Amino acid sequence: MTSSTTDHRAGAPDGPEPLAPLRALVLTPTGTLGGSETWLLDLLRTSRARLRPEVWMLEDGPLRAALESDGVPVTVLPTGPRARDLALRNLDLGRRLRDSDAEVLLANGVKAAAAVVPAARAVGVPVVWAKHDFSWDRELAPRLGRMSDAVLATSASVAAATRRDDATIVPPPRPPAPAPRAEAAAYWAEQGVASGDGPVLGVLGRLVGYKGVDTAIEALADDAARAWRLVVVGPDDPTEPGERTRLEALAHRLGVADRVQLTGPVPDAGRHLAAFDAVAVLTRGDGERFGREGYSLVALEALGAGVPLVGATGNPEVERMARAAGRVVPARDPRAVARALADLEDPQAREACGRAGRAVLADHPDATACAERVVQVLAHVARRPGAGLAGPPMSVLTCFRDEAGHVDEVVGAVVAQLGPDDEYLLLDDCSTDSTGAELAAWAARDDRIRLLEGPGVNLSVARNTGFARARHPRVACTDAGCAPGPQWLTGLRAAFAEPDPVDLVVGVYDVDCGDPVRDAARVALFPSIEEARRPGALTRLAGRVSGRSFSARRLDGRSMACSVPAWEAAGGFDARLRSSEDAVFGDAVLATGARSALALDARVTWAQTGDLADMARMYAKYGEWGGRAGSWQLVSRDLVRASAYAVGPLLLATGGARTRAAVLAGAAGYLALPALRARDVDVVPGTWVRVPVVIALKDVAKATGCLRGLLGRAAGDAGG
User: Where is this region: Disordered (predicted)?
Assistant: First the structure.
């Protein structure tokens, strides 16, 4: 380092700042502290650095106090179980979502999803459905799965009914270390569970018929299980208020009431299972819409405590665990349960099951790993990958050619965001003005900057040169003529800090404005970052038709980051292309099986042209090189536009009334979103009348260029 270079590391922070946490809204159906509610509490407690949660509950209960003690804002919105109750709540939630600042919504369970997914879809709030069980699989699961932006499920079998091949499987986490047997026995004694002769079977869960408590009581009446006592731990369920009375009457009728104890809810019961000699999960289908365990937390807790598990068939994950560390029994079969208990009277059999259970649990993900998976899905759906994370060191690349006077804006903005271990590659691609001197002046001031000489061929070759020279395995790019926002680099780098990072991060861009032409282009020709945060139905439709939307599958070189291995696997940027090389490169990366994410935090402002002739030349160039590349994604829309502009006037001139009405309706629909934007966005006077002009100019110029490019490609002139 020369004496004129400033060592930026003096007094520098340890690393880059983390991206702001994710504003997550959770809708959960009940106030009890069952399995899905415990899952939610674990998630929120483990993800404090990444989430800023708020919870809406459809029913009050102990969950509210637990959340509020953790500092989570809670709103209770009492909602009945009928379809009409859910429909009315859906309308109310739509209004509430529209007024909220939530970046993503988590629907915790099927009732929550039924109450809010349609509303979220209409308002545009990204929604993730956490599916915990098999309830309403035939009636609701396929529809809710299709309407949700993503599905989380406790197991593959639970996810199957949603028909989502991309569902993310996140089981309940490995439970905390259990209390030792002596401590657990003392705890249960304090709860009124007296010690006595013979082994003890524990059953934990809400008192509803399909939990199979009656099967356990009936098993105790069998001679094979005469030595066993039964302890049932769990609250009454408001949907079956008479279940406790029914179970007590059953125990009296069978003559086993002296060996059956229903304790009611016991806090922290799962941590004290070591006092039992076996734990049973006998859940069965209720013959209608409920029943079966999606993934039993109690079963996991039994394995952790080294206690044998008696699991009923029909519960795939329970069966898997019981097969390894206990006994599998048919559902509704008291005799089979009794025989299993007879086997487990043998202390050596119980000890062998305990060892096997601990071995199974050793490979199970803990609370941190499970929470990381969930939050990664939430952040991806919210288009803020890496929310709450800082990210690794990066190489940043900007290529310049004859940009004298425009260097300071982009370089100054990037340098302000560099971390102590980042590097900034400034590539001068054979400039003929003072660009090189301006870049050299920056390099003299900061030792994180490296100057590179480009070959002067095109932007593709220049970018390939930068990627090949990068010191870090991940490279962020922006162009000359772009002004990176203050969180631009943070938004790109944080995505690579996810536990399962993507290979390609697609940033976003805004365009400058200030005169009628540029304002018209801003509302009519370019996607909107704010609409990408909450894409409503009209926005989604317009994006499909016109391509005016940000997408993780549509790369733009103004704001992007890619891993070097993914760049290598894709063969780099196509050196034959003088335009559209970024979109073609993105397609090539994804074609290798790599994954991408859209990052709304990675925002730059692009200086667009305000001259209509320059605008036409620019879009004709985009169309031509898309055609030369042979990219179906780029070519298809241009050909559709060309057909519409060719056929539309002919149909208006020669068609009947209905044909003309259809053509006019199509044109009006095509202009609808730009019209709404022009109405709602602050634009200068005269903008609206220019919107149809710039739309037609873009479409015709791109279509013309595309046809020229396709002809050149057919003639074997791919290099231009």
Answer: 1-20
**Cα Rg of the chain (Å, integer):** 31
Beta partners for residue 23, in sequence order: 52
- Domains of the chain by residue range: 22-173+367-380, 181-362, 384-714
Q: For the domain 384-714, what is the CATH code?
A: 3.90.550.10
Spatial CB neighbours of 273, under 8 Å, sequence gap ≥ 6: 178, 184, 202, 279, 298, 301, 302, 304, 305, 307
Residue 1: its pLDDT value, please?
34
- Which pair of tokens denotes residue 470? 């990068």
Q: Is residue 578's pLDDT more than 70?
A: yes
DSSP 372-420: HHHHHHHHHHTT-TTTT------EEEEEESS-TTSHHHHHHHHHTT--T
Band the pLDDT of 676: cuts 50, 70, 90: low
Task: Provide the residue count of the chain.
Answer: 720
**Is 494 within 8 Å of 18 (Cβ atoms)?**
yes
For residue 24, list its beta bridge partners.
Answer: 53, 104
Work out the pLDDT band at 6, boundaries 50, 70, 90. very low
- Cβ(106)–Cβ(378) below 8 Å: yes
Task: Assign a CATH topology to domain 181-362.
Answer: Rossmann fold (3.40.50)
pLDDT value of residue 288: 59
Buried b (16+ CB within 10 A) or exposed e, 78-105: ebeeeeeebeebbeebbebbeebebbbb
C-alpha dist (Å) from residue 678 to 513, 595, 607, 700: 13, 35, 19, 22
Mind listing the pLDDT tens digit for each residue in 409-462? 999 999 999 999 999 999 999 999 999 999 999 999 999 999 999 999 999 999
Contacts of 245 (CB under 8 A, 6+ apart): none
Region 3-24 average pLDDT: 65
Taking the C-alpha atoms of residue 560 and residue 682, their distance in angstroms, rounded to an integer, is 28
What are the tokens at 14? 């340890």
663 CB-near residues (< 8 Å, 6+ apart): 648, 651, 652, 655
Asked if 420 and 502 count as a contact pair (C-beta separation under 8 A), the reply is: no
Find how far residue 584's CA is from the centre of its chain: 26
**DSSP per-residue codes, 122-141:** HHT--EEEEE-S-TTTTTTH
Question: 3.40.50.10170, 3.40.630.10, 3.30.460.10, 3.40.50.2000: which CATH number matches 22-173+367-380?
Answer: 3.40.50.2000
φ, ψ at 409 (rounded to 5°): -65, -50
In the Cβ-directed half-sphere of 680, how many Cα atoms lie within 13 Å? 11
Distance between CA atoms of 494 and 375, rounded to whole angstroms? 13
- Which H, E and C letters describe 5-55, residue by residue? CCCCCCCCCCCCCCCCCEEEEEEECCCCCCHHHHHHHHHHHHCCCCEEEEE
> And the tokens for 20?
């702001």
Is the pLDDT assigned to residue 9 strictly greater than 70? Answer: no
